[in-house]
Amino acid sequence: MDDRLQKIIEGKEEMFANPQFNIRSLNPLLKFEKDIVKEGLDFKPKFVNLLSIIMEAYREFKNTAKTREYFTKMNRYRG
């Protein structure tokens, strides 16, 4: 999980710059988020980075409701 999270974090700029990046591109990230929570590994600091990337993507897609949802999740996990 840590390696996969690190790859996502390191590849964020490239992912956002990809012209084929669209709302469906988030599906693997959303599934990964659910898997992390299901496994009880959502206490790790890098999990907040994943939430931040998802939030930024929703902001790029101008989805205000989802941007707020992930902003709230990030704050909850930051404590």
Plain-language structure description:
The protein is mainly α and 79 residues long. The protein has one domain (2-10, 30-78). 73% of the residues lie in helices and 0% in strands. It contains five helices and no strands. It has helices spanning 2-10, 12-17, 27-38, 45-60, 64-78. The relative contact order is 0.16. The mean pLDDT is 94.
Determine the fraction of residues in helical runs and give it as a percent range.
Answer: over 70%
Q: End-to-end span in angstroms?
A: 22 Å
Q: Total number of helical segments?
A: 5
Radius of gyration: 12 Å
Low-confidence stretches: none
Q: Summarize the helix and strand pattern as letters.
A: HHHHH
**Mean pLDDT across residues:** 94
* Domain tally: 1
How many β-strands, per DSSP? 0
- Determine the structural class based on helices, strands and strand pairing: mainly alpha
Most strands sheet? none
Q: Rough shape?
A: globular
Strand content: under 5%
Secondary structure blueprint with pairings:
Layout: H1 2-10, H2 12-17, H3 27-38, H4 45-60, H5 64-78
Helix pairs in contact: 1-4, 3-4, 4-5
